[in-house]
Amino acid sequence: DGLTRGAAQFGSSLSALAAALPGDEPLNSFAAGLNDAVAAATSLSAGAQQHSAGSAQLEGGLGQLGQGTARLRAGLALVADKLSSNPALPGGSPAGLSESVQPLIEVAAPVANQGSGFAPNFIPLSLWVGATFCTFLFAYRALPSVLAAEPTLALVLGKLALPALLVCGQALLMLLMLFGVLGVEVHSVPRFVVTLLLTALAFLTLIFALVRIFGDAGKLVALVLLVLQLAAAGATMPIELTTPFFQAIHPYLPMTWVVRSLRIAMFGAFEGAWASSAAAIAAVGVACIALATWFGRWRPVDPEAYRPQIETD
């Protein structure tokens, strides 16, 4: 009996033990938790290794920082040793220290007023227009047939004689207007007068040569040349502000030297180098007379048909 009861109790204990054990789901959860714990432990180990490497790098960086600090301290000590213990204070004012260069402006060629300043721009224009008008008053190419055998140079000079008096009279009349009416002040009156007369004659001979060589088309060429010179002679605007083309032809235009000569005579500009400019203007006149003599053509007419260009009756 006792054995039977013991066996029965043992069986009951086994049943109770089996009933007390958890099911499959808790066991599976437990196994998954163990796997997560293992993975976390692995990550923790890798992080610890990275921390160790970072600590080593930080230690090296701190060592370099210490060395740099030591060098900076040595450099500051060297600067302090080289500098004077009682340095002299810089002189001047704050404005002078902020702008160390003070420009010095000197007026090399004083101009009395704006009207006088613009005079060298418009005087050549007026003289050119006056010389152009002469082409409508005088027949530059027409020649009485009885004079066809005379020397060409003599004929050219004879053709220019009366127009030259006319343009010189225009220049003198302009001179009276500038001095008597407008009250223009000039630096050198003799140079100014000579420049006006030379310019009038040079423009006359230039337009005369164009008409002699090209006929009436020379008047159109003279008009185009006038417009070109207004832009490239440095009269209406500084030549440095124009295009490279105008700057290239600037030294070879007659009006360039006229404007320069007038500014020298009126204001004493260009250090008073008037002779070279006046010589250039005179050279234009001589060259144009030579061109008209060598390349110009006459149109012989009967003496009875040789009349003024403008009819008054």
Polypeptide structure, described:
The protein has a two-stranded parallel ribbon with strand order 1-2. With 313 residues, it is an all-alpha fold. It is built from 10 helices and 2 strands, in the order ααααβααααααβ. The model has no long low-confidence stretch (mean pLDDT 85). The chain is elongated and about 185 Å long.
By DSSP, the count of extended strands is 2
Which structural class should the secondary elements be placed in? mainly alpha
In helices, the fraction of residues equals: over 70%
Mean pLDDT: 85
List unreliable stretches of 5+ residues.
Answer: none
Name the strands of the widest sheet in spatial order. 1-2
- The radius of gyration computed from the alpha-carbon positions, rounded to a whole number of angstroms, is 53 Å
Structural shape: elongated
Distance between the termini: 180 Å
Largest sheet: 2 strands, parallel
Beta-strand content estimate: under 5%
| Count, helices | 10
Order of helices and strands: HHHHEHHHHHHE
